[in-house]
Amino acid sequence: MVVNFTAVKNERGNEKGMKKFYDREKETGVLKEMQGQAYSDCSRFVVLTGRRRVGKTSLVNNLIQESAHIAPGLYFFVGRKTETVLVRNFAEEVQRQLGEYIPESITSFRELFRMLLGIASRRKFTLFIDEFQEFDNINSGIFSDIQELWDRYKKETNMCLVASGSIYRMMEKIFKDEEQPLFGRDDCTIRLQPFCTDVIREILHDYKPDYTKDDLLALWTLTGGVARYVELLMNNGCTSVRKMIHFVCANADSYFIDEGKKILVQEFGKQYGTYFGILGQIAYGEVTQSEIEKSLGMDSLGGQLKILDEKYGIIRKKRPIGAKENSQTVRYEMTDNFFRFWFRYIYKYSDLIEIQNMTELEKRMQSDYKTFSGIALERWFRQRMMESCRYKQIGGWWLKREKSKVTPNEKGNNDEFEIDIVAVTTDDRVEAYEVKRNMDKYRHSRLEEKVAMMQRNIFKGRQITIGGLSMENMED
Fold this sequence. Notes:
Layout: E1 2-4, E2 8-9, E3 15-16, E4 19-21, H1 25-40, E5 44-49, H2 56-66, E6 73-77, H3 83-98, H4 109-120, E7 125-130, H5 135-138, H6 141-153, E8 159-165, H7 168-176, E9 188-191, H8 197-207, H9 213-223, H10 227-235, H11 241-248, H12 259-268, H13 272-282, H14 289-296, H15 302-311, E10 315-318, E11 331-334, H16 337-347, H17 350-354, H18 358-388, E12 391-400, E13 416-425, E14 430-435, H19 444-457, E15 464-469
Parallel strand pairs: 5-8, 5-9, 6-7, 7-8, 14-15
Antiparallel strand pairs: 1-4, 2-3, 10-11, 12-13, 13-14
């Protein structure tokens, strides 16, 4: 992500002007390796996927800029235009960046791509095709044309072809479906992820060195590390909880209001209504299939849940740590922080947005924020643990108790024993943590009781390190 702070004032009222490309060292390294192989050996085909706004375009454009002294790069954006208009736009880019003339008689992408491969037989360059899946809406035969020409000329040319797409189901179909012409043609596939916790912290620190833990948690909670959302908040001076929520609720045309729907309707198509209903329920926390079906008044939603989990990766199954893979003790949770935020507030309160009562929407967000961010805090710690590479297993643990087995001194407790985070290190040590926004609410003795119950079921005889995690531990 390139964050542009030009003419944006920070909390102290000073103007800061800077541009910085954050993170992506690993992905940039892979792209440079593919590019190097294309230039020294023969053409390479790279597929780049990832949710919208995650920074795919910035990543490849940054690569093209950094390697411009070696060879030029072309950027083709596949918009919803006719094939002839697109090809003329692309021809102008070829003239501008390569100085190569494309005759006006060239009106199909097949003809243009053949010419580009001809150019690549005598000079090296990178071709970046953005929103590649949109070719399907313009002329689906283009995929077969690319396959035929690529197979014929790849070994004789020096092009680094990068195809990027945001609609996951389409990109999967194009490149992973054995019946599709481009199946198996990619030399490398990169799935770009949101920023990790350290990068989110670095960005916030660059703009607000004296940020609070709550500021950091809010940025994570609302954006999930998605590059465009982080950039938008930072460029508008939104570095505190209050300012971030106010920006989201600025007006009914706020960037964030339609964002969830715009992205997901493209993925789900006409069936989005059912999927939205399911996601609206999961946005409130971990829930079971039966709870979702009861809330929606619908039966047999297992198929839709499986699609949301396995095909789109928007939700995931959670089982208690130590449970077998076929265990029916399953809960579902959202994997994307932004979608969780969007369904919890924008989708739920669409009636307020419809009548443009953004003041009430902001009031409800502000009042509910501490509860909402409490769940995000647990996810923050899990993410930090994953990024540390110190663990081989990270999860939670819960056990629903039968009322007949509740002892007198346990009456009044919840119907479940539940531990927020249970993790096993790479050297086989077990850790268990309770997560609280406010450490004053942590009860060590209660966690010991839960861990003792867990040990009756798993980790028998193992020593378990236990403790509480709060906002003060966010950067440990």
